[in-house]
């Protein structure tokens, strides 16, 4: 079996799991923003929950990446054998980026009349979410290209 498929599976699990957690985070933030209950303490509380969910979600993908590297040691394969996994990983990356940008637009549209510090918090959350969502897919993308 081509280890690229393990990297692809890790990307899919991580991206969709973390994207789901990020959507929950932004929904909680928007809910509190609409009720005027948003402050730095609540944002920190929600971020802590988000990072715990991310850590739990990344357990299986990290294990799959480790197994993929172990499998790469004994096998040789060409990049041609990995074209479909590469396309899938790139698709997962693009889908994740598009979803984060949509969430950003929705969040900032509801904050138009609020203070600029709230917009700053939202933008920071977007960048944190983006970094956590695309981390494993980028690692997987690079891993497919590494030669054993």
Structure report:
By secondary structure, the chain is mostly helical. Helices cover 83% and strands 0% of the residues. The chain has 5 helices and no strands. Helix 1 (4-34) packs parallel to helix 4 (83-110). It is elongated and about 55 Å long. The relative contact order is 0.22.
Kindly list the characteristics that best describe this protein.
single chain; 148 residues; mainly alpha; 0% strand; elongated
Number of distinct helices:
5
SSE pattern, N- to C-terminal = HHHHH
Q: Give the CA-CA distance, first to last residue.
A: 14 Å
Mean pLDDT: 88
Query: Based on helices, strands and strand pairing, what is the structural class?
Result: mainly alpha
> Roughly how much helix do the residues carry, as a percent range?
over 70%
Query: Describe the biggest sheet?
Result: none
User: Rg from C-alpha positions?
Assistant: 18 Å
Low-pLDDT runs: none
Q: What percent of residues are in strands?
A: under 5%
Shape: elongated
Ordered list of secondary-structure elements with their pairings:
Elements: H1 4-34, H2 40-57, H3 59-74, H4 83-110, H5 116-145
Summary?
The chain is an all-alpha fold.
């Amino acid at each position: 079996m081509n280890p690229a498929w393990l990297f692809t599976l890790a990307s899919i699990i991580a991206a969709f799991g973390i994207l789901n957690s990020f959507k929950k985070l932004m929904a909680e933030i928007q809910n509190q923003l609409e009720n005027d209950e948003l402050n730095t303490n609540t944002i920190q509380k929600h971020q802590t929950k988000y990072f715990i969910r991310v850590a739990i979600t990344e357990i299986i993908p990290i294990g799959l990446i480790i197994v993929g590297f172990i499998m790469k040691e004994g096998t040789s394969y060409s990049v041609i054998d990995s074209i479909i996994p590469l396309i899938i990983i790139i698709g997962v990356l693009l889908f994740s980026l598009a979803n984060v940008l949509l969430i950003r637009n929705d969040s900032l549209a509801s904050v138009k009349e609020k203070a600029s510090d709230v917009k700053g918090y939202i933008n920071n959350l977007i960048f944190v979410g983006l970094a956590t969502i695309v981390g494993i897919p980028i690692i997987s993308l690079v891993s497919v290209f590494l030669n054993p």
